């Protein structure tokens, strides 16, 4: 088990190729994410933006959109900056749990394959922040590794807890270990966090997209 920022920093160079060619459904999901954005998206929040693979389809549809991206790995953010030198992007090197996301600020928010490392409680707290950061009618689009059964979900959470206990890793420290949830549980978390509606709109392999809308 590696610290989260160190894990992704060590893999920054080959990250794009890995995600596009080795993770089933990701290539298609990157394209889908751009299609799902609201028609008049002007301000976008990208959580765990990494090297910005998802932004290619976003900029293809909205060339002038303003993007705020947050990621733990500076190496990943450096690669994103190289790709999109001419775009209106603000990058924050840090964790999205502690970042100030503001209120009624964004038309949409996205995350891609980043949320499957955290507990339900941590995610619900974050989703509340995301919901409040969106304008009325705003949309949160989450693409993530999700499983189909409660048994699978419980297995990975139990393994994570076991390994952390063996290595004396505190719960509040970010270490890389996959703890995917079922998409049913993800939808429940979005609704608990205050989103008005949430639905699964894409799934290929374990790569799943859920959209959650704020109507207030």
Can you characterise this structure?
With 216 residues, the protein is α/β, with parallel strands linked by helices. It has helices at residues 4-10, 15-22, 26-36, 55-61, 74-83, 120-133, 150-167, 183-192, and strands at residues 2-3, 43-47, 66-71, 89-93, 106-112, 134-145, 175-176, 197-204, 207-213. The chain has a seven-stranded mixed β-sheet with strand order 4-3-2-5-6-9-8, sandwiched between helices. Helix 3 (26-36) packs parallel to helix 4 (55-61). The longest helix has 18 residues, at 150-167. The model has no long low-confidence stretch (mean pLDDT 96).
Number of helices: 8
Beta-sheet strand percentage? 25-35%
Query: How does the overall form come out from the CA principal axes?
Result: globular
Strand order of the largest sheet: 4-3-2-5-6-9-8
